[in-house]
Amino acid sequence: MAENINLELSSQTTSSWLMKKILVGSDVDQKNNRLRLPKREFEEFVIPEMEWGLVENLEKSVEVIVKDVKGTDYHVTLVKYQNGSYNFVDKWNDIVKAKGLKEGDQITLMWDKDAEIFYIM
């Protein structure tokens, strides 16, 4: 089943990119425990800003930090699946629970290449 992704992308500084996403059911379903990131935008804007060692290990999975506006760090796994999609997995449900996220909510993700972390707003 195809997912509808509503995404806006904008450059905030030379070291960060913002991605806005309207969450769909599978993004907040506790059984799935994953957030599918927009492939085209992720490959075009985020990957070029990542350290090469991180990028080359995406298919094996890498741990990244997602920090919220309160300063809470969440250690999630970022992985590229065989179908080519990029996903936050494992501890993604911790973010869903802590922020009370539900289908239809909009989140903003920012990759900060200098700090090498994602921010969620």
From TrEMBL:
UniProt cross-references to PROSITE patterns, sorted A to Z: B3 (PS50863)
Residues covered by the TF-B3 domain: 20-121
Keywords: DNA-binding, Nucleus, Transcription, Transcription regulation
GO molecular function (one): DNA binding
Gene3D superfamilies with a match to the protein in the record: DNA-binding pseudobarrel domain
Annotated compartments: Nucleus
InterPro entries: B3_DNA-bd, B3_domain, DNA-bd_pseudobarrel_sf
Entry keyword Transcription: yes
UniProt-listed SUPFAM superfamilies: DNA-binding pseudobarrel domain (SSF101936)
GO cellular component, one term: nucleus
Main localization, broad class: nucleus
Alphabetical list of PANTHER family matching this protein: B3 DOMAIN PROTEIN, TRANSCRIPTION FACTOR B3-DOMAIN FAMILY-RELATED
Protein name as annotated: TF-B3 domain-containing protein
Organism: Eruca vesicaria subsp. sativa (Garden rocket)
